[in-house]
Amino acid sequence: MKIAITLGETSARVSEIMIAPDMMERIAEVLPKALGGRSAYWIWDEAVWGLWGEKAAGLGWPMDGGNRVIAFTASEPEKRLASVELLARRMVSAGAGRDSAIIAVGGGVTGDVAGFLASIYMRGIPCFQIPTTLLAQVDSSVGGKTGVDLPEGKNLLGTFHQPRQVYIDPGFLATLPDEELRQGMAEVIKSAMIGDEVLWKFVESSFEAIKGREPNALSRVISASCLLKSRIVQADEKESGARRALNLGHTVGHALEKVTGFRLKHGDCVATGMVVAGELSRRLGKLHAEELDRLVNVCQAWGMPVRIPARIESAAIIEAVKADKKRIGDKLHFILPERIGKVVEFTDIDHGQFVEVLKSLGAG
Ligand SMILES: NC(=O)c1ccc[n+]([C@@H]2O[C@H](COP(=O)([O-])OP(=O)(O)OC[C@H]3O[C@@H](n4cnc5c(N)ncnc54)[C@H](O)[C@@H]3O)[C@@H](O)[C@H]2O)c1
Ligand SMILES: [Zn+2]
Questions:
Q1: CA-proximal residue: ligand 1, atom 19 (nearest)
Q2: Which residues contact 208 (CB under 8 A, 6 or more apart)?
Q3: Which tens digit of pLDDT belongs to each residue from 160-203?
Q4: Nearest C-alpha neighbor of 187 from the set 134, 252, 232
Q5: Closest residue (by CA) to atom 3 of ligand 1?
Q6: Do 183 and 274 lie in a common domain?
Q7: Closest Cα partner for 248 from 285, 206, 221, 287?
Q8: Which residues line ligand 1 (CB under 6 A)?
Q9: CA dihedral 38, 24, 230, 292 (to 10 degrees)
Q10: Do 357 and 218 lie in a common domain?
């Protein structure tokens, strides 16, 4: 499947996403054409290089000149400005100029850091993404958000820099640990909840196939998620309206990550956040109880937490929600599911009601 996201009023910018079970094989042919004579500098997640580097070289990926492959020890703590500087210096010493391009190979950390570097390297060079985690394939490689963390919070420095092309091969997921697959599935469930009832039914009925990394099942969930995200990004690239729908489960999700010192994983926190949003919506008379049950059941089947640990205080969650950069003004604002496949934005949620929901789901 090929998805083109057309951006800007003049439609001058296009970001393309290619998803295929044999995408790895096609990169040697597709990428040089897209590079149009630019020299490629590859930023590989070191762990992914260890698992897939040899295969990629064997498939003829245009990684000519060993010094053009730069290994990056990808982990959330390394998603910081110092890493960007280090990678930039390695690019300079390897001879990268304004006529170069960056190809990021790895998960969301690698994509965010490499994308950020591409957006500022010599005032900006093109970026290509080859995402290798499910989370990166369904979420972070699409939409052009790049960035790094500060000790004060995640993604506080960043840019919008659309990748020229994104090459997605579900085959990479063969080596992905189950726990990481689950993090990506939380974003897939989110996409389905936001706007794709057909994807929802597929996810509900295809647990074994997806968990077993069946290429067709994976291609289907990845394609549907990318399509949904692309449509939203095309309508609202810089998140002034429609793109906020993608934050379903993230207001509380981010708060849970923060108050647990990032010991809980992002997708898991988003799953709990979606259940909180679902319960809030049910109490407001929007979401049907039976649909909330379906959300809880799907998340539980994947082993995602659907309750808040009692040691986490509601007050701490509220404080973290208020500090979230995504808030608007002083009111608590949430994306809430209205039904499976449709969300609405609420900007005046009552504090008391929110606390009741947090407590009903286990918070202290
Ligand atoms: N830019 C965006 O729009 C956006 C959206 C969502 C998330 N993000 C960011 O994405 C990051 C999380 O991404 P992630 O979950 O991919 O994390 P990650 O990049 O840290 O990858 C998770 C782990 O999987 C390993 N890995 C990667 N591919 C593998 C493979 N094929 N086989 C085996 N192991 C593999 C990595 O080495 C790492 O240890 C966060 O920093 C988050 O802020 C960005
Ligand atoms: Zn997310």
A1: 107
A2: none
A3: 999 999 999 999 999 999 999 999 999 999 999 999 999 999 99
A4: 134
A5: 140
A6: yes
A7: 287
A8: 45, 47-48, 51, 74-76, 79, 106-110, 112, 132-133, 135-136, 139-140, 143, 145, 154-155, 172, 175-176, 180, 183
A9: -150
A10: yes
The answer to whether 336 and 344 are in contact (CB under 8 A) is yes
Among 176, 192, 210, identify where a domain stops.
Answer: 176
Q: Are residues 186 and 90 in the same domain?
A: no
Quick check: is 155 catalytic? no
Asked if 215 and 144 sit in the same domain, the reply is no
Residue 16 sits in the same domain as residue 163: yes
Q: Tell me which DSSP letter residue 101 carries.
A: E
Residue 57 Cα to ligand 2 middle (Å)? 32
266 as an active site residue: the answer is yes
User: 136 C-alpha vs ligand 1 centroid, how far in Å?
Assistant: 6
DSSP letter for each residue of 140-156 = ITSS-EEEEEETTEEEE
* Atom of ligand 1 minimally distant from the CA of 145: 1
CA of 135 from ligand 1 middle (Å) equals 6
User: Which domain does 113 fall in, by range?
Assistant: 2-176
Distance 354 CA to ligand 2 centre (A): 21
In this predicted model, what pLDDT tens digit does every residue of 346-362 receive, in sequence order?
888 888 889 999 999 99
Residues 37 and 182 in one domain: no
In terms of Cα–Cα distance, which of 245, 269, 246 is closest to 258?
A: 269
From CA 16, how far away is CA 31, in angstroms rounded? 12
User: Contact 27/33 with Cβ under 8 angstroms?
Assistant: no
d(CA 276, CA 249): 8
Helix (H, G, I), strand (E, B) or coil at 63: coil
Number of domains the chain contains: 2
Q: Of 124, 142, 176, which residue is a domain's last?
A: 176
pTM above 0.70, yes or no: yes
Which is the catalytic residue, given 239, 313, 345, 356? 239
